[in-house]
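Researcher: I need the complex structure. Ligand is zinc ion. Inputs:
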Amino acid sequence: MRILVTTLSLLTLLLHAVPVQAADALPPGHQASPYVRWSYPSQMSYGPIENGTGNTGMAPAAGAFLTLPFMGPHYITSIFDHCSPDYSINGRICRYDGVIASAKVGGPDPTFSAGYAQTPGGQDYIYYDGHDGYDYGLYYEPVAAAAAGTVILSGWVVPSCHSCLSGLTIEINHGNGLLTYYGHLSQLYVAVGQSVRRGQVIGLSGMTGTATGPHLHFGVYYIGGGGPIDPYGWGGSYPDPYSKDIGDLWLTGSPRYANVPMPKVTITAVASKRDPTAIDVSWSSPGGGDKFVVYAVGPGGAFKKWAANAGAANAVFHGQPGGYYWFWASVTTDLGWKDANGSSVVWLKSDHRTEQ
Ligand SMILES: [Zn+2]
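Model: Output:
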């Protein structure tokens, strides 16, 4: 604890020691921002959190259509640069709310010259010069379609080079002149030409292509090579340095999770009062189009598949008197979300003949 306190004090000193301009290069939390989700000072070393509750303070653009491409809170590890979102390094990174990070403040991350750290020589950047999308700290987790559409790419973005660019990538055409882009994936669950629904699991995040760690690169681009745009729009008090933006594209004006049912398995197992060899088992989960696989685990501990491709149900399991049994159910919703849970252990009474 003392070490933590000392580090914090040092940090505070450092922050006070840097020029006034530096305050503008820090993620807010100490300054007015229209969007309070940036205010996570204790977690700044890994960037702010996107948790689906922030408020951009902006009205949605006409035709706003996006929800977050994941579920649950995740760090934002890099933002869209309104000052040259074409990976060119010009020493300035302009955030959607007008804050400008500069190579002269804090300084380049020594391990990543395009990233401008918040502390001198540090690696605590969320400012990635020329970045044309948002990086979210997903660790091999489900990636959700940010809106309904048609898959137009599902594969290596450069087929001959698996360490290039965003590696395994999905693009979805939303029929409004825009596509969403999901990069660095480890698994793809959709195919080109397939229609997907908002909130559908389309792949598993990863770190294919050029990546320093597992994350999701999420971007919005004009169809046909017209360039990227910032889904968070522009809320700066000066004109947007990037001319192609079309405003805040989040469905409600603020990033939210897709409103789709998430699975959560409940499974119960109770010895039957009617039959000494019977166990009443029932399983269910909120969600749509649920498909369950249910395993029975008996004496010896082996999992035996008992039900597959099943809906929510009650069923009677027959075991050996004197045996212990429990049950494990996994579910996949029709949007590809998964959950699993186990029942408590049930002991079947021994036969009267053997009971002492
Ligand atoms: Zn990225």
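Model: Summary of the prediction. Residues 1-34, 36-45 have pLDDT under 50 and may be disordered.
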